[in-house]
Amino acid sequence: MKATIIVCLFAASCAGVKLPSNFQKCNRKQPDLKECVLKAAQNGISQLTRAYDEVNIANVNPVEVSEVTIGAGAGSVAVEQKFKECKLDGFHKMKVDKFEFDFEGKTLTVVGTFPEITKKCQYELDGKVLLLPVKGTGPSTIVLKNLKVTVLFDYQEKVKKGKTFINIVSSNLKMDPEFVSYNFENLFDGDKQLGDNINRVLNDNWKEVFDEVKNDYIEVINKILVQLFNNFFSKVSLEDAFD
After folding, report:
1. Closest of 170, 152, 146 to residue 110, by C-alpha
2. Which among 89, 109, 223, 230 is placed 20 to 30 Å from 6, CA to CA?
């Protein structure tokens, strides 16, 4: 499987600017640096309900994704899921448990939980799920509840005009939801009984259905996070991010 994702976020470009005054700063020499960075990250994420053009960050409430294709699985989910005009909401509500830079190893580790990620899209399905035929086009809502994530970013540094900018070059994301709910409207050309039955089966067997295509969802979330961090750190140098 391979997910196709087109994310509508700002393009990155290196040009140093100051950190917005409403974002907390830490000093890399302070003894409680890890605690300070964790609080600063939590504070910053909660403020991403509007765009910050000056630091290349789009409004993540919601994140707009113009196109996502989730590949057909080899087992229970034998259908390619095509989504367009997507809005993903809930990124700004992340509860951060760990946000640590390793400046020598050039890594960033982030651990936390999204209470709820809601994905609203126009969908197109034509195949089988759990051996049942599924066909339809229309609005869809998929909700991932208490989504726990752990991600390790590897980055490179680039010095420009005496300032150090970082760029994430690889990442390893793991995620596990507590529950996933599905609602596909207009299945089988609006046959309510058939549509309700399919949605009920999907929700009753959510884990099997989700696990089959989990890697593609990881790729979607991972791409969004990498682009957000790279956009931000293409504008804000380490010298400007930390005192």
Report:
1. 152
2. 109
